[in-house]
Here is the input.
Amino acid sequence: MDYDTPLFFHVMSYAMEAEHDVIDMVSGNPDWGSPPGISDGLHEYADLGGADFQYPPSEGLRELREEIAARRDVDQSQVVVTCGGGEANYLAMARAMERESGDEFILTDPVYPYYPGKTKMLGATARFVATDEDGTLSPEAVREQASENTAGIVVNSPNNPTGAVYDEETMREFVSIAEEYDALLVSDEVYDHFDFSGKFTSALSFDSDNRIVTNSFSKTLAITGFRVGYAIFPPELVDVAKTRHMLTNVATSRPAQYAVLHALRETTPEYHEENRQLLKSRVETFTSALDAAGADYSEPDGAFYVMARFPDFPGTLSNVEKLIDEAGVAGMPGEAFGSSRDDWVRFALVTPEVEEAAERLADYFG
Ligand SMILES: Cc1ncc(COP(=O)(O)O)c(C=O)c1O
Here is the structure.
């Protein structure tokens, strides 16, 4: 099979090899620090040794699964603890294919690039539905692409890269389209703690056998290196997913799961609120500078990305390299996210240097 290396790796290494100072706005690695429960949990774990250093249950530490199940109001048997949201999405999409009720995935354009990558890896075909310029995804447009060939519909709210957050009615519609076409809705909710609009609705709000919700602690607890996420399956779909998880990974890292459990118990809502406030102020700083640079931009309702379109400067890989070389700011080319955002560049607001980056862009284009 011909796998495409994600463009992300190329841009990251180009920026890292630059000899001058480059502000990294490529990756989605939070810079605001994890809650103290993470390092406390790791220290506590380090002293356990013995049996606690051996394989955890494949589907995840029992207490962590119980904690997740209680928070999400599902039965713990429906929860699989995965190696991040990435594996959770893979298990969910693989499960949709295993049902043999279609071999197509409905994806959005723009799209988080790992979904089309996984679609290809699973031998499925992608059908793209364009979002509006502000990232709104119309259920009607999704319905038009749905057919008996649809294995799954993959949505992400709050959205990477557009920052859109789908409201309750929209999510309800996605679930019912999946039901109508005997497909699975895969709802990737890894940015659920980064909703600035208050309208985020989890697909779990709608009782259905046709939806899988995926999530991760990577962003929520600023631990992208730990690799702990989870998927919540309908009861009759979960066992096969647990088997695939076991055969692929054996289990998810035990110390990481232990620390996440500890942090979930200790972390207060203020931690998340502070991060949202920080991001909101970064969005303001950054978009004001984009105004000064004469750029169009997305105003995110959630997640931590801003897309910008500069006059006569399409968001191609070569222009992104030019920005690295000449402005000292690294973003992601819009073409990485599908065909509809070729003209745009995505910037991740996960650096304390957002203000400096904004000034560099304003100077460069202003
Ligand atoms: C929409 C989306 N889903 C999933 C992931 C993967 O998350 P994880 O690090 O938990 O695998 C990311 C990471 O950037 C993401 O943006």
